[in-house]
Amino acid sequence: MPHPSRRRALLLGAAALATGASAPLAPPALQTWRGTAMGAGARITLAHPEADSLFLRARAEIDRLEDIFSLYRADSALSRLNRAEELTAPPFELLECLSLCARVHAASNGRFDPSVQPLWALYATSHSAGGTPTDSRIDATLARVGWAGVRYDSDAIRLRPGMALTLNGVAQGYVADRVAAFLQRAGVERALIDTGEIRAMKAPQGRAGWPVTIRDGPGIALVRRGLATSSPLGTVFDAGGKVGHILSPETGRPVAARWRLVSISAPRAAVADALSTAGAMMPNRATLEALVSGFRGARIEAAIAA
Fold it and tell me: Residue 270's pLDDT is what?
C-alpha cells in the first residue's frame, strides 16, 4: 500500500487528469523517527513519500557507524584500536574523524585532545565505585595522554603504549553528517537529523528554517548547517554535579566551568561538535572567537558564562 501522503498525492494527480485541470501536488507531510545513536536519544524528521523505508535504512547507517566509533561495542573499530593500540586498514570514516580532531587540537592549542580516554575511564571507574581518583593516580594516568602519540595513515592507526582514544567530542556530529549525506543520495531534500548533535538540510516547505532552541539560549532557524552544544557540567561523574566530564589534557583535571554552555554552528555537524567541545574549554570570549574563526562558515550561536 502506498504511504498515506503518497496515496493522497496520487489521488490528487488522478483527479487532475480526470478533469483536465492542473492541480499542484500536496508535499509529503513531515514524519519523525525516534531511537538512539551513539548512546544518546536520536531523532530524524523528514518529508518524503517513502519515509518509513528511509528511516530503516538510516538506522542501518547509524548502526554501521556505531560499529566504527562506539566505545560501548567491544568489536567496534575504535574499541579494537584502543585494545591493541594499532588498527590496520582503518575505516575511512575513522581516519576522517582523526584528521578533523588534529585540526581542532592545533586550533585550540592542545585543549581538544581525544587521547584523554584513559583519564575519562579513571574518573568514571573511581566515581562509580563511590570514590574519587587520587592525585597520584591522575598524574600517572596523565602520562598516557598526548595527541603526539597518535600516528595514522590509510594503512594503519598506531597509538603510543598505554594510550586510548575517545571520539565522543566529534562522533555524534559526524554521524549526523553521514546520515544527512545518505538521505541526500536517497533523494531527500528536507530533513533534520539529531544524533545528540544536529544537522539540518533544506528547510521544510514554507519555512525559513528548522526551528531549534538552544537550552538556556536563543532559538534559531537552522538550514544546511550543523549545530552542537557543550557544557563543562552538562555531564558529570559525581552525584553532586560538580565534577564535569570535559577533562584537561594538560592537568588531568576537569576544566574550570567558565561557561554554562557553548553552542556552535558550522556547515558540518562534526566541525560544530568538535568546536563546541573545544569552545567549552576556552578561558574567555576572545580565545573562543579566535578558535571558531579558523573554520570557514563556523559561528558562535551562544556562549553563556557560568
Answer: 98
77-84 and 92-107 helices, crossing angle to 10°:
70
CA atoms within 13 A on the CB side of 142: 15
CA separation for the pair 301, 227 (Å, rounded): 9
Q: Is 41 exposed, middle or buried (0-12, 13-18, 19+ CB in 10 A)?
A: exposed
Is the alpha carbon torsion for 59, 62, 64, 67 positive or negative?
A: negative
Nearest by Cα to 50 from 191, 233, 186: 186
Q: Residue 208 CB: number of other CB atoms within 10 A?
A: 10
The Cα–Cα gap between 300 and 203 comes to 21
- pTM for the model stands at 0.88
pLDDT at 214: 87
The residue among 37, 70, 35, 68 whose CA lies nearest residue 195 is 37
**In the chain, which residues have pLDDT < 50?**
1-23
